[in-house]
Amino acid sequence: MDIRLDNLEGPQILELLREHLESMAPTAPPESRHALDLAGLRSDDVTFWSIWDGAALAGFGALKHLTAAHAEIKSMRTAGSHLRRGVASMMLRHLIREAAVSGYSRLSLETGSMEFFEPARRLYASFGFAPCAPFADYRPDPNSVFMTRSIDTTHA
Predict the structure, then answer these.
(1) Which of 52, 150, 154, 155 is deepest in the core (most CB within 10 A)?
(2) Closest by alpha carbon to 55, among 82, 37, 29?
(3) Largest Cα–Cα distance of the chain, in whole Å?
(4) What are phi and psi of 49, to 5 degrees?
């Protein structure tokens, strides 16, 4: 599989992003959904990667710059055709590595508190992410779980 910096213009990317956003809709009220839309992912403070299995889109993920020392994982998604094939782990390893190379010492994320998000929370915990207080512009929300981890930039 191949991870590529992506410009969010290909039809496969746009379709998986649409699917991603639509799958979030029934999980929480609008004020508790924090997935970035196309405009948000194209923002200057976001870097977006896609992961490909040959010609097939396997998933995507993004990093959002918060401060010189802190970034946020955004929009991790695995295509349905590639579930349970290690795509999410591969993307998460890539995002952690990119955060270290970029000089971030902290990497955080927001995910849902509902059962739907349990596999994501287990994945993040297996990579050393631990629950934390809301960060950046987030506020306490019973529909959200906030997680963070330190990043070792000395071996980036």
Answers:
(1) 52
(2) 82
(3) 42
(4) -125, 150
Rounded to whole angstroms, the Cα distance separating 111 from 123 reads 12
The residues that bridge with 52 in the sheet, in sequence order, are 2, 57
Give the closest residue to 63 by CA, choosing from 25, 33, 88, 97: 97
The sign of the torsion formed by the CA atoms of 135, 152, 42, 25 equals negative
Query: pTM higher than 0.90 for the full model?
Result: yes
C-alpha atoms less than 13 angstroms from C-alpha of 130 in its C-beta half-sphere: 5
Distance CA 24, CA 52 (A): 23
Tens of pLDDT, residues 82-130: 999 999 999 999 999 999 999 999 999 999 999 999 999 999 999 999 9
Burial of 82 (0-12, 13-18, 19+ CB in 10 A): middle
